[in-house]
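Worked problem 6 (solution included).
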Amino acid sequence: MTELFQGAIKFYEEDYNNEKNFFKSLQENKPHTLFITCVDSRIDPNRLTQSKPGELYVIRNIGNIIPPYKVNNDGFLAVTSSIEYSICKLKVKNIIVCGHSNCGACAIVYDKNMLNEMPYVKKWLELLEPTVKEVKNMNPEDDRKKTWLTELQNIQQQLHNLLSYPFVEEKFNRGELHIYGWYYNIMSGQILNYNLIQREFKPIVGDKPPLE
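Solution. The predicted structure is:
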C-alpha cells in the first residue's frame, strides 16, 4: 500500500499541478465512448486506447458480461443502469466491448467445483450459459482451445446482448451509435476487432475505424 499512497501524492504534486487546466476542464462528464471490459487487473482501458481521463465511460465486471435486456427492472442492474445512463444521459457515440486472453471467467465457468466455493461468482457466470453452449457445439479438442473459443464467443454474445436493448438498437440502426467488439491478447499486445457485418475478428490496422 505504501507505493499506492506515494503514487497518490505524486499524482497531485506532478500530474495534477503540471496539467491543472486540463483537470479543471473535467468538471463536466462528457465521454465519447462506453468501454465495457473485464475487471482483470491486466486490462487498462485508457492505456489500450491511448485516451485521456474524461474520454471513456468504463463499465467493468467479471467476464465483460452484458446481461440481456429484460422488460421488468430486476436482475443485474449495476451494468444495465450504467449502459442506460451512458447512452441516454451522456450521449456516447461509441461502444466497445473488450474481452481478453487468459480470461479467468471464461476458464472457471467450466470448473463446477471451484464455482461451488464462490456462489456469487457462480450466479453471475450463469449469464455465460449461451456462450458455453455454443462452444460445446464446436467440440474443441482440449481445455486451452475451449477457453480461447469461449473468450471469442463471449464477445460476440455480449454484442448480441447489447443490441437486445431497444434504446441501443434504435440508435445503432440510425447510425447514431457505433459498436465494436475487441479481443485483447495480453501476451502479444495485439487487439482484434470483431466485424458485425462479416462476423469475424481481424487485427486493428491503419488509422481509421473499421465498419461495425
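Discussion: The beta strands are 33-38, 56-61, 94-100, 178-184, 191-195, 200-203.
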